[in-house]
Amino acid sequence: MLNMFLNCHSLRNLDALKLEGDAVTDISSMFQNCYSLTSLNLANFRTSNLKYLANAFDNCTSLETLNIPYLTTGQVKSFTSLFSNCSKLKELNIKHFDTSESQGFADMFINCTQLTSLDLSGWDTNWGRYFESMFENCESLSVLNIKGWGTSNSMDMKKMFKNCKKLTSLDLSGFDTSGVRYMQEMFKSCNSLTSLDLSNFITKEVSNYTEMFYETTKLDTLDISKFDTTNSNNFNVLTKEQFELMKKIRDETISRTERYSEMVSGNKSNDGLIIPEGTKKKKKIKTETSQKNQSNSDTNININNQSLGIAEIPKKEKEEININKERIFKVSQPFLFYKGEPLLIIGPDTQYYVWIFSLVSFLCIIIYGLKSPHFIFKILLIISYLFFGTTYTLLLFLNPGIPTNKNNLDPSILQNGYKQCSECNCIFIETEGKYTIHCERCNICVDSFDHHCTFATKCIGKKNLTPFCTSLDCFNPD
Fold this sequence. Notes:
Layout: E1 39-41, E2 65-67, E3 117-119, E4 143-145, E5 195-197, E6 221-223, H1 240-265, E7 282-285, E8 299-302, H2 305-308, H3 317-321, E9 333-338, E10 341-346, H4 350-369, H5 375-397, H6 413-416, E11 418-420, E12 427-429, E13 436-439, E14 444-447, E15 451-453, E16 458-460, H7 465-473
Parallel strand pairs: 1-2, 3-4, 5-6
Antiparallel strand pairs: 7-8, 9-10, 11-12, 13-14, 15-16
Helix pairs in contact: 4-5, 5-7
């Protein structure tokens, strides 16, 4: 049922009570861009084998009621943009969702401006990695229950609660942020929040705090005493008080780390820094004795920093970049490599190429064999057929735009922001206007992802969009 009602802009009423989904595995974009649809009752729609549902109700801007009591999601790995831009939806009962296998929650409720309450307390989010913009612009949301959420695998929480203007309280006591790297604009414009307890937040990996608490005008109690901001310089747009507090924490942490490094290297006394008894202090010199006078940056110190009450020394850029492993091609088959990059890739739906090419060839032979068409028409038909065959074959083999492994060697990645896909290990830079999305069917990330086209056998992205559009235009009379 992939794209089943996609772009049915004028569809107002839909009787879907007899819709059965026991054998359905994919409802991605099923109702996407059904702008005029006001209500949808899927009370009998049971989906015991469902695996893909991203964007299923995206841009249903007139949808006021949605009944999905038997939508089983135990095998779903991504809820990305599931209800995004459902701006008239006031109530939503999805507490029964099984999210134990999901890693993606990005943009799930973005721009649900009239949604007033959400109870998601029963969700298992321990495998979740991407929470960016999950509740962004939920301006009427006054009650949000996410108590008990596990976020130990999370990497991205930027804009997660941005513009939740009526949210008065938020229980984040169960959040584990030890792996989170981006928190910019996380609570921006939460105008009704009066207190926020972030004392459990571990932020040693966070590289960006930009506008994290910007315009939280009623916030009078904020506990960020345990923030470790040694890995970031991007928090200079907080309120004056918040800025001074975070700057103080950062300076003290760096100072204590430097003092300890000098003390262990023998260049300076401990200067009042008390080391607990039994703490093991080891140092490993990078080179031979002739190079012992190098700076402390070439010395690895192996201690229990937590017992000393100091932050861990930030990793070097190359160590962080090298977290990437080889890209994983589980379904798509790459071949003909050039400098480590696949020039050609065969997608998972190759059988459709054979069917479509055979069908087009058969129709062209039938039309050519008719007596009535003019000779010039037959010449144009042959040219169109050859042009179609060429572009369609190119489409079968061309790389759709898989992120390059050169990203691992680019030191600017850490400054510009990047993500690593947990499914295929691709690393891609986050820049405005550039969208890299992991296709669950091809099981690979694609730059400038447009859509997955079954008849094109693979995803349509940055490098194969032109031949795709050209092959469609070959037989267009206009």
